[in-house]
Amino acid sequence: MKFKKYFYFAVIIIFLGISVVFLVKNSREVKLVENSVINKIQYVEIGGQKVKVELARTSEEQEQGLSGRKSLGDDEGMLFIFEKPSKYSFWMPKMNFPIDIIWLDENLHIVFIKKNATPESYPGVFTPTSDSLYVLEVESDFSQKNNLKVGDLVQFLP
């Protein structure tokens, strides 16, 4: 009787171990798929508009952002891609023009918009009210021209 009890216990432990290994392996594969898709992003479709984006993935690229540039085209932007959702703050050091800053969650919904962030706002900081995984910087007034609002869905395109 004791043998059966230990046998069933061992089977359950082995099953749980295999399940954990399977889940860890699959979560890594999903992350790799996400990264391969992210590396191919060239455009963001938002508010019915297609915006050509430059990716800011590394901390150096994110720190530099659009600082020092003279302008940004009507259909251009910068997409910041972070490792995990959080309340990422932005500021405007060495900026030469105003922008709209749009925070997106992991499901690509807009969670916060800072309209018309001006260079004069520095050293002020803009922080969303919700966690985000992506941040899109576009020309000032883009959000208003395209009637963007919290909850709108965005698409990443190759």
Core attributes:
Jelly Rolls, single chain, seven-stranded mixed β-sheet, globular, 158 residues, alpha+beta
Question: Can you lay out the helices and strands and say which pair or pack?
Answer:
Elements: H1 2-39, E1 43-46, E2 49-56, H2 59-64, E3 76-86, E4 90-91, E5 99-104, E6 110-117, E7 125-126, E8 132-139, H3 142-145, E9 155-157
Parallel strand pairs: 2-3
Antiparallel strand pairs: 1-2, 1-9, 3-8, 4-7, 5-6, 5-8
What does this structure look like?
The longest helix has 38 residues, at 2-39. It contains three helices and nine strands. The strands form two sheets. The protein has a seven-stranded mixed beta sheet with strand order 6-5-8-3-2-1-9. A two-stranded antiparallel ribbon has the order 4-7. The protein is globular. It folds into two domains: 1-39; 41-157, Protein of unknown function DUF192 (Jelly Rolls). The model is unreliable at 15-33 (pLDDT under 50). With 158 residues, the protein is an alpha+beta fold.
Structural class label? alpha+beta
From the spread of the alpha carbons, the general shape counts as: globular
- The N- and C-terminal alpha carbons lie at a distance of 62 Å
Distinct helical segment count? 3
Overall mean confidence score, pLDDT: 85
- The first-level CATH class name of the largest domain: Mainly Beta
Poorly predicted spans? 15-33
**Residues in β-strands, percent:** 25-35%
CATH architecture of the largest domain: Sandwich
Written as H for each helix and E for each strand, in order along the chain, the element string is HEEHEEEEEEHE
CATH T-level topology of the largest domain: Jelly Rolls
Spatial order of the strands forming the largest sheet = 6-5-8-3-2-1-9
Rg over CA atoms:
22 Å
Q: How would a textbook summarize the main sheet?
A: 7 strands, mixed
What is the number of domains? 2
Q: Specify the CATH homologous superfamily of the largest domain.
A: Protein of unknown function DUF192
| Strand segment tally | 9
Q: Percentage of helical residues?
A: 25-40%
